Amino acid sequence: MIGLGLLIAAVPGPWTVADQEELAPVHAVFRLDQGAGPDLGAGEESSSRCGECHRVAYEGWRHSRHAVAGSNPLFVAGFEAEPSPRCLRCHAPRPEEAAPFRAFLRARRQDPRATLRVPKGHQGVACAVCHVRDGVVLTVRPVSTPEHPTRVEPLLEDPRFCAGCHQFNFERSDHVTQDTYREWKKSGAKPCLDCHPAHQFPGAHDPSTLAQAVRVSARREGSRVILEVEASEGLGHHLPTGDLFRALHLEVRRGENIEPVATFGRRFVVEREGEGGPLQKRIADDTSLRPGERRRFVIDGPIEAWRLSYRYAPARAVARGLSPEWAERTLARGTIGAGN
Q: What is this structure's pTM?
């Protein structure tokens, strides 16, 4: 029988008061506010078992970022740099998946040089994290099967469900750090699943999805080069959105030199909350592109080429050993010929 295992319940909630109120229906069903994760029991924990009957859904999930939420190099490097149990709510929500991270936290208390070891086969956000509660498989359509009890749960397709992991504030703070759900509400765009279909949920790590999100044009006007960067009108959130360290970087090549032109993203600061209060993080600047927004840049002098890249991590993460292909992706590039 499938039960419910509670995880890191003592960690302060990651939502503002306003978020808590709006997401209350989702919390009531999925108990995300308690850091809840389904415990499938011995021999039943693998999503591959779901794939025996749900092959298409399983294959989509297997190639998704959800499948590597707790094992991809970006998260592992980030968790080693700033280990916080609250990260496990979304990246490793089941007790067995959280185990290596808890072991690392214990080891780090004894030895600051301890490293995180994530076992092969770690599943991150497995099928059951979204689809199983209290021994019942939650579905979006009526299903009758002798294999397991089912129940229709419309909230699985509700953007508020996505907000459970894609909308939260800084630790011990009411300042929002990931604002994707609120950005979506302001945009008036289609529901999340229209652009990020289940169960693969393509997003910032999918080249075709990124290619549709932004366009760059370049032209020469006399001795100047005009670069324009435009976010897609159909975007349902800012670009970039999500993790704080994500940023778009526009740069040009002049001879042998690479020169930065603009950065699109968010910057945070750490400051004391009130006189004698605790140190807290807050967003200090947000230069992310809004849906349909176009920005124009004028560069003087001879320019041979330009490039727009999406960086998933700060430069210091690469210095700590995170491979460049995990830290950055080129979205678009071009040359500026003398006749352009």
A: 0.87
